[in-house]
Amino acid sequence: MMLETALIRPRLTDYHGVTLAQEDADFAIPFFNEDIPLYVDPFLMWRSPSQQDMALHGMLMSAFNHLGQLALNGKQDEAIAALIIASECDEVGLGASAKRKGKRIGCDKAAEILSIFRRIPHYATYGLSHIEEVQFFVEGISKDRISDFACSFLKSFLIDFTIDQCAKLGIATVAKTVPNVWDVRARRFTDVATSLPIDPTDDRPLLLVPKRWLRFMPWISYEDYFEKYCPQDDISHTAELLTRVEVLNYNRDNYGVVAAYIAAKERSRDDAKNDPLFSQILVRSARSKLAQIKKLPTGKTDGADLKYETAVGQLLPSLLYPNLDFAQAQARTDSGVSIRDLIFYNTRRAPFLKEVFDDYGSRQITFELKNVAEIERTHVDQLNRYLTDELGKFGIFVTRIAPKKAIFRRTIDLWSGQRKAIITLTDIDLEQMVEVFDSRQRDPLDVIVKNYAEFRRSCP
Question: Dihedrals φ, ψ of 37, to 5°?
């Protein structure tokens, strides 16, 4: 394994030296020490044409409704204990936590959830059809909690899925005991000994989640219900002051309204799609960003440097996806000078990117943003110091105009003496990339390939 500290915002695949773009993965590639800001949407299993996904949804609802029946049959404490366990699934790393560590619900909240089986006769008799329905009756239950419930009850499948994906990709696994795996036959949580990939920062096991299940917002959601279906005027004469608690109380006494909403969402099932982990901006937005860039003066007047960095930082990730997965924007300091970089994972998806990895060891590629009238020797020296063996020896300036001959000569000398490659993208290059992005006939990466070819032709 490579050292985790060698990379900016390392992912599981990068840590293990696996070349894989997020676009090509069947799962959401997990980061270390932070969650992926997506959530499992159980509805995507329910509406899936896959028999496996439909069966998994049935398993999920059978487990959840079983706890409701336990509470109805005098085993409230047992049901509460299981529901608390199911309310958090740290191994999947989904949600908004910066530390991949969530918090379980308490006894009172678990009891409140189970109370809907007594309060609503339909649930007492038939159970819930969708676990997402809980959010219409219980305060504090939203997309993150629904996602955790789903992952907890389906953890056994996620273990198998993770093992299978790791075997296909050559990702190392370690013997681990995974706590709180739902046993379908025994109908209880148990610990399971298996082998899984780990987070090297704390040795915790990781579970991979099929990206076909993931959305930013559940298809069945309280926000959608409140905006489009909730009879707000029937609940309050001052709808603008209507609170969530008032709506939830109304729903408990008027189950038919919620049932009608669920039926409507089921009828529109064909519109329910998983959300990609990265969405490219629209062509008109790309052109708008380019226009903003071209109008900006060089330098720092009226914050032009920050505006330039922002616009380029929004444009390039879309132009280069999916060949380069965006890692992050990074501010660094060199000799007292603040420098803004865009860091990308080198997926080696294209022949040129494989060449960059093979020749320069670049597992990630740094784009240094410079809103200056001209690139100077000090700028080249700053980027040169950043191009180390660990991060790779290939870097790109994004600036307004091409470097002067003497500066270009400096980059050639770096290649000759240290085998480091520094090329430049100008306003004209960005314009060409947007044109290619618009036409969809070629890849914006081709502009970088062209500039690199011109650079290499000048090298001895």
Answer: -80, 50
- Chunk the chain into consecutive blocks of 10 residues (it has 460) and report each block's average pLDDT, rounded to whole numbers: 62 91 95 89 97 98 98 98 96 80 92 97 97 97 96 98 98 96 97 96 94 96 93 77 90 95 97 92 95 96 95 97 94 85 95 96 95 96 91 96 97 96 98 95 96 96
Query: For residue 50, how many other CB atoms are within 10 A of its CB?
Result: 11
R_g of the chain computed on alpha carbons: 26
Pairing of β 324-334 and β 337-346: antiparallel
Map out the domains of the chain with their CATH numbers.
Answer: 4-271 (no CATH), 283-458 (3.40.91)
Q: Which long-range contacts (CB under 8 A, 24 or more apart) does 326-335 make?
A: 326/278, 327/8, 327/9, 327/364, 328/8, 328/9, 330/8, 332/386, 334/382, 334/385, 334/386, 335/382
Token reading at 9 = 């915002």
CA distance 251 to 238: 18
Cβ burial of 274 (10 Å; 0-12, 13-18, 19+) is middle
d(CA 152, CA 91) in angstroms, rounded, equals: 9
Bridge partners, residue 178, by sequence = 192
- What distance in Å separates the CA atoms of residue 181 and residue 14, rounded to the nearest whole number? 28
Judge if pTM exceeds 0.85: yes
Q: Do you find a cis peptide bond into 322, omega within 30 degrees of 0?
A: yes
227 alpha carbon, distance to own chain's centre: 26
**378 DSSP assignment:** H
Nearest to 403 by CA among 433, 353, 355, 368: 368
Which of 15, 39, 195, 41 has its CA nearest to residue 102? 39
- Angle ∠(30,363,36) on CA atoms, nearest 5: 15
Burial of 328 (0-12, 13-18, 19+ CB in 10 A): exposed
What is the C-alpha to C-alpha distance for residues 261 and 198, in angstroms, rounded to an integer? 41
**DSSP H or E segment with residue 421:** strand 421-425
